[in-house]
Amino acid sequence: MTVPCVRVDRESGEETRQRLAESDLVDQGREIVGENGWLYIPVTDPTAVSDEDTVVERSVPERETQTMPDDLVAFDASYERLGEVVLIDEDDPDRARALADAIVESDIPTKTVLNRASKIRGEQRVRDWEVLAGEDTEAVHREYGCAFALDLAAVYFSPRLATERHRVTGRVAADEQAVDMFAGVGPFAVPFAKRGATVVGTDINETAIEYLRANAQRNGVADRVTAIHGDVRAVAADQYEGWADRLVMNLPHSADEFLDTARRLASDECVLHYYDIQHEDDPFGPGIRAIQEAMEPEYAVEVETEHVVRSYAPHEDNVVLDVRLLRE
Q: Is the dihedral of CA 83, 89, 95, 97 positive or negative?
């Protein structure tokens, strides 16, 4: 079986491997092989590597010495990784303990194992965690060439939305002015700025805003990111009225409550990314109607994309509407 690999000359091999590893793109289950002056580095997501890299399909051997959590427990091991912090979601304390021990004993680089102990709650969108290994709830997560520091106990962050964030980022132009109305630690704002956009990010969670500023600095875009603590309705609508060429509204349970503010922020032509959670029978209709009610007749509303991001709960979908607003 062939797998995607980055092909690079041997002289540049280690530099390239380190760069791919920093973005968590190296396929740890496969060996790096060399042939005729080239190295073939297996990667987990060929769409996420730099355009400067050459991706080819090649047969490379599995790494026989790697031990994974599945090898050490008698059930399917389910977990997520944020850098060296591993997240699990186990209600049974015995299973949670066994899985945490297996993760620590495996070849996965791990400093902390956290078990979800509550649902996301409150306007700051945080949850409780049970620390099963290690002590530190801070992680450094790498995603599509960006690095994000965050404290899972103090801010909201979902690694499952990485592909969606990358999709939206790919539409951003270098001369744009963008507002992320619920910016968190910067997973939209920072890659937008790396594309050359000027970005304003607001959030009601002061700790998230502190991380956003630090992450803008970490990724070399502090000069293009303005981070503002507070409710976007109070702290940004006046100063940035009519300013935004692009708006991100990733607050799916209540984004409709902020559409009047989005209208004030929008420039004469603005793209709106509106996230929603709705029943599978009509996942897009409520959002479209809410946007039309808030924007018309001041703006013509053109729905460019209706996209299911992921299943949220039984019979409920997390969806996004990409909407172009044109001032009439």
A: positive
